[in-house]
Amino acid sequence: LDPRLQPILSYIQAHCQQWGWLSNVGHMTLFAADNETVLALNAQRHLNADALSALSELEAQLAIRVAVHQQGLVNAPKKAAKWYFLPASGQTDAGALTVPDLWLSSIDDCRYPVDLDDFVQINKKLNEQMVSAVVSSLELTATDRVLDLFCGAGNFTLPIARHVEYVLGIEGVPTMVQQAQRGAQACGINNVEFIHADLTTSAALDKIKAANVNKLLLDPSREGANAVLECLQYSDLEKIVYVSCNPQSWVHDCALIMANGFTLEQVQSFDMFKGTTHTELLSVFIR
């Protein structure tokens, strides 16, 4: 647990019995970004004056920011954003509300924006170790052209781009693509291209073919990458690095990769979620 978050948990534990308004909150998220420490309340109904006063006091005591879902604020613009910071003044009129602008850093001086609804790796230290391991396993050179499938906000893509000629990142969630593009711009990285696409469509496959890549990284969700692996052309690929969060789908996908002329060279596990059975697997395939 990031040491910035424990005081928030302790404060909530000490005061929650007095907060009758908590019944209007579906859940809370604690977020330790590089530039802000945030307590986000997913309020399902408008928070009353007592709630806003208590949250302002919490902010002042802990020197953090409180963000509230638009459903919890009477005057929040409904189409502008989902989340708003409570202003220091305690006022909640639309003109006083600001949208969170949160950033996380990674290796090689890379940074990328994140939203409070995003999936992010909660173990920053292990995530950086995993990103370093991916970069090392790909054995990158200045002439490499890399394809990053299921690229998200660029967790792997941006550090890879520091070492190669070109990276193509493809992601199925449009907001993540926008964040990846913002991250690349913030890092001054101009040899990466992010696109939103269904990886199994002809348009995506044509884009992959035109990119003329020689190395592949994929980091799919728990469902695995079966559909896209069945569509890929493998002839120009020298190396594949696969990051998996589900050993069951990983086994099936490994068989597909090896059926296309690759050998499993290495497997490394990362205990990303301490106290659970979930493990991240990093596997390297070579010809």
What's the shape?
elongated
The CATH class assignment of the largest domain is Alpha Beta
Based on CA atoms alone, the radius of gyration comes out at: 21 Å
Number of helix segments? 8
What is the mean predicted local confidence, pLDDT?
92
Q: DSSP strand (E) fraction?
A: 25-35%
Beta strand count: 13
CATH architecture of the largest domain: 3-Layer(aba) Sandwich
Structural class estimated from helices and strands:
alpha/beta
Describe the structure concisely.
The protein has 287 residues and is α/β, with parallel strands linked by helices.
Summarize the helices and strands and which ones pair or pack.
Elements: H1 6-15, E1 25-32, E2 37-43, H2 49-62, E3 65-69, E4 83-85, E5 102-105, E6 111-114, H3 124-138, E7 145-149, H4 157-161, E8 166-171, H5 174-187, E9 192-196, H6 202-211, E10 215-218, H7 226-231, E11 239-244, H8 247-259, E12 263-270, E13 280-286
Parallel strand pairs: 2-3, 7-8, 7-10, 8-9, 10-11
Antiparallel strand pairs: 1-2, 3-4, 5-6, 11-13, 12-13
